[in-house]
Design a protein that fits this description.
Layout lengths: L5 E3 L18 E6 L9 E5 L7 E3 L20 E7 L8 E2 L12 E4 L16 E2 L1 H9 L4 E4 L13 H9 L2 E4 L9 E6 L10 E3 L3 E4 L9
Parallel strand pairs: 5-7, 6-8, 7-9, 9-10
Antiparallel strand pairs: 1-13, 2-3, 4-10, 4-12, 5-11, 11-13
Helix pairs in contact: 1-2
Length: about 220
């Protein structure tokens, strides 16, 4: 692995990006346009806060949870591990379908079960609650996935979201981990500091780097 390489793990967002049903798609409203003789080009945007690669705030799934501007930044920056679970569409990620020991405080799972170039599909893989709790008990502070949710689409009880709140785990969803090998990286996926919001888009990247210890946060 090239230790100096940067992996962009943020999917390209367009007006056709496959969003959770009922979410507002990206819209661009051009206020000024150089092509039409204005001095500058300036745009307004509107969309769901859960657009593309994003960080869920605890207020998304818990009444008294922190909003995105209140979330500590160390969750989104630092030593990270990428794992490729052996999982199919609609299946749960468990301890049985990973062959890597979890050694980092931030862990991203590449399932390859959601295609950002196609319409929204409900059959993406997500986490088994027991495995999610296992990660929490092993001091994982951030969990990410290359799918729209850490819970299966039809599980409206959102057990893994609730465990994230219980154990103060940060969630990253809709990552693009295609082509990223398993291993250790430095993660940067900072949310916007927007007051009161339940989520924020992130520009998520990984940098290959050797750490002296996998136990450092």
């Amino acid at each position: 692995m090239n230790k100096n390489k940067i992996w962009d793990i943020t999917p390209l967002v367009t007006a056709d990006f496959p969003l959770w049903p009922g979410s507002k798609p990206l819209q661009r409203h051009i206020v000024c346009d150089i092509e039409k003789g204005d001095v500058i080009t300036s745009s307004n945007i509107s969309s769901t806060a859960h657009l593309g690669a994003h960080a869920d705030a605890p207020s998304h799934y818990a009444k008294d949870g922190l909003t995105i501007d209140e979330c500590p930044l160390h969750y989104y920056l630092g030593l990270c591990q990428v794992i490729h679970p052996q999982v199919k569409h609609g299946e749960l990620i468990t301890k049985k379908n990973i062959d890597q020991k979890i050694v980092a405080p931030r862990v991203l799972f590449a399932t390859s079960t959601f295609d950002y170039a196609k319409p929204f599909s409900e059959d993406f893989a997500a986490f088994d609650p027991d495995f999610f709790e296992f990660m929490a008990q092993n001091k994982v502070i951030t969990i990410g996935i290359d799918a729209p949710s850490v819970d299966l689409f039809k599980n409206q009880a959102l057990p893994c979201h609730q465990l994230a709140y219980k154990y103060e785990i940060a969630l990253l969803e809709n990552l693009d981990l295609d082509g990223v090998p398993e291993g250790l990286y430095e993660l940067t996926a900072l949310p916007l500091k927007i007051k009161g919001f339940d989520a924020s888009p992130v520009r998520a990247i990984l940098r290959g780097i050797e750490y002296p210890s996998a136990s450092s946060p």
